[in-house]
Amino acid sequence: MPEKAFQDYYPDQWSHCYGCGRLNEQGLQIKSYWDEETGETYSIYHPRPHHIAIPGYVYGGLIASLVDCHGTGSAAAAAYQAAGRRMDDGGPPIRFVTGSLHIDYLKPTPLGPALDLRGVIREVKGRKVIVDITLSVEGEITARGEVVAVQVPDHWSLITGEKEQDELR
Amino acid sequence: MPEKAFQDYYPDQWSHCYGCGRLNEQGLQIKSYWDEETGETYSIYHPRPHHIAIPGYVYGGLIASLVDCHGTGSAAAAAYQAAGRRMDDGGPPIRFVTGSLHIDYLKPTPLGPALDLRGVIREVKGRKVIVDITLSVEGEITARGEVVAVQVPDHWSLITGEKEQDELR
């Protein structure tokens, strides 16, 4: 596993996210990486006992959260790649928010083993990136997700004014 | 607000859910009710400071979780209603799991005020219920969701064997 995840390159003001922020101590701290062999992205998450739906199975909202943050993280990594940039090049940060999220729950996801997320970058077009994601447990796919991620304006800073919000709408 | 929420009628073995289980102390404890005037369902949730995306805004995975559990709860209430039953009639429990979940994030959701979810039962057909959900903050809709909920087999008990799992696939 590489030393730093996509999310570890986010600037501090983007690192409070409950799903993937390294500065959110109560959050899920989702970490995503490139699989250099396949060109896919991946993330491995170990659910906690309270992440339960019915006894024995993972809560669907946790799955949605994992897909969401793995999706926006993958979108950022893909956008850097498309721009010929490295995530640690010190240039203006490229960050994405979720425009839409879709999950198909194919079967119950057993609670206990690690959850394996794989992301395929389907499309990078302008400021939009679409990522297809599967969630597997011990080799069996239990859910499929799609994230349509939208790049935030370059000047969308920590102190977000009404004008800047409008640009995200 | 009525005394008991839809989720408070769930049998104990269905009440551990991280999103809406009354027995999950670390969970979100989402509560859903009928609005008798409009025939819609509603839920009000007060996000905590760590439910953050970027500073000032609500985490999208929390929104997905709220839509998910408000959707399956609304589906259960609608199925009881369609069957001419009361949720507290002591008969076989009617419970739903999420088949698919879709969220459109229309604009950033401010973190602080209460989140208002409204559900409209679009379709009750066989063992499937489709619920359309809006999430608003102080009267402004910031996200729209759709939950396709699937009723679990009557005998799908606490101890779920491989055979019963197959029926959910």
Describe this structure in words.
The structure is a homodimer of 169-residue chains. With 169 residues, chain A is of the alpha+beta class. Chain A contains two helices and six strands. Chain A has helices at residues 60-82, 162-168, and strands at residues 33-34, 41-45, 96-105, 115-125, 128-137, 140-151. Chains A and B meet through α1 and β3 of A and α1 and β3 of B.
Distance between the termini of chain A: 36 Å
SS field, number of helical segments of chain A: 2
Radius of gyration of chain A: 16 Å
So what's the CATH class of chain A? Answer: Alpha Beta
Keywords summarizing the entry:
30% strand, Thiol Ester Dehydrase, Chain A, 169 residues, homodimer, alpha+beta, 6-stranded antiparallel sheet
Provide a quick synopsis of the model.
2 copies of one chain form a homodimer. Chain A has helices at residues 60-82, 162-168; strands at residues 33-34, 41-45, 96-105, 115-125, 128-137, 140-151.
Record the SSE blueprint:
Two copies of one chain form a homodimer.
Chain A: E1 33-34, E2 41-45, H1 60-82, E3 96-105, E4 115-125, E5 128-137, E6 140-151, H2 162-168
Antiparallel strand pairs in A: 1-2, 2-4, 3-6, 4-5, 5-6
